[in-house]
Amino acid sequence: MVTAAQQTASAPDAALTFPKGFLWGSATASYQIEGAAAEDGRTPSIWDTYARTPGRVRNGDTGDTATDHYHRWREDVALMAELGLGAYRFSLAWPRIQPTGRGPAVQKGLDFYRRLVDDLLDKGIQPVATLYHWDLPQELEDAGGWPERATAERFAAYAALAADALGDRVKTWTTLNEPWCSAFLGYGSGVHAPGRTDPVAALRAAHHLNLAHGLAVQALRDRLPADARCSVTLNIHQVRPLTAGDADTDAVRRIDALANRVFTGPMLRGAYPEDLFKDTAELTDWSFVRDGDLRQIQQPLDFLGVNYYTPTVVSATDGSGTHTSDGHGRSAHSPWPGADKVAFHQPPGETTAMGWAVDPTGLYDLLRRLAADFPRLPLYITENGAAFDDYADPSGQVNDPARIAYVRGHLAAVHRAIVDGADVRGYFLWSLLDNFEWAHGYSKRFGAVYVDYPTGTRIPKASARWYAEVARSGVLPGA
Length: 479
Hints:
- By secondary structure, the protein is of the alpha/beta class.
- The chain has helices spanning 4-10, 30-33, 46-51, 69-82, 94-97, 107-122, 138-142, 149-166, 179-189, 199-223, 246-269, 274-279, 293-297, 360-373, 401-419, 462-473; strands at residues 16-17, 23-27, 87-91, 126-132, 172-177, 229-234, 239-241, 303-307, 312-316, 342-345, 379-384, 424-430, 449-452, 457-460, 475-476.
- The protein has an 8-stranded parallel beta barrel with strand order 2-3-4-5-6-8-11-12, surrounded by 4 helices. A 3-stranded mixed sheet has the order 7-9-10, with helices on one face.
- Helix 4 packs parallel to helix 6 and helix 14 packs parallel to helix 15.
- The radius of gyration is 21 Å and the shape is globular.
- Mean pLDDT is 96; it is low at 1-10.
């Protein structure tokens, strides 16, 4: 009898069947799709301020309207149902729920999410709510932002408000999405909001995001039913050396500490890695980590969300290297504190419209590592996808074979990881809709559904129809 593993090894392009109960979904983020930036009590977030600052975002684009999901959510939920999605991962806009980051919730903001969740449930789609996908209330940034401990405390209070309002409907919660981006792109390189360029502030922000996560999990557990699930989503970097030499291997270690273990250490092991402290000793003594913080941060999780797009390739350098090939945007300031003697390299081969290498082996290797490091922690792919230069043809169709090939390759990698022992239980395609792609504005299209921005018209791409069939059948067709 041929086992699944043997079949995968001998015929990698054959149809692949995923385990029964595997969850198929898609994902979005509030600032990228909602619009309605000043409606029903919502006040500016750091991304509103950043996007409205000349020179920050391509073409001067902002999320003021985005894809107008705030008004077209019924249409978007109907699309999800048409595509047969089993789950929808979305984020709550903190400044829509608690505009100043303090005080009581705004009921109109909560009502929007109540209606959204009710419609999802009515159509058999599991809501997966993320508390924070980068839209910090501007008033909290004005008070110091994530480098300050008070922001973590405020986040826990916000988590409690959200749980009280939606906990009877939403059973799956994520505290933070990609805190690495919030800390190191927001406060280190400045290519994300709030646009600050202070390496010590970036490290302080990383710690207080960790603390915010732990405090929020406690707030959620105190309020949610016993069957609710809590998680965090990390963009774990699959870091590879340019050569097999010792210096390049050490460059991998250094970046792995800054990209990954700065979060997995305290969140999942209850300690920061000692090599991280040594690597950054010239910048800070980490005295902002107080007694008891690590106990607060390390909270039991029901699963770990994993975002993956492309691998990272590094080498040792004499200090004259550049971080601009790290895939995270160009800046005169590095998002890698204490890693001045590490250079980043463009991986070989095909790339997406973002310039990111297409390499599903990175996802396989990453899942195998996580399964080995944290064997009792289930995994979900909470973001994976690609931007391409999509357009509607004269017949109104959007054909995107490159995206289908990308997703198929990465799903095959997920399947292989499952066969080889990784406990991966679901996959969320990024993204449901074309949307505001942060500093790239509307120039990059990640969606399974094409959005004509002047009219807001939604057109499911060929990849959406393809993914819908995979989600319905649980079978990945052969290449």
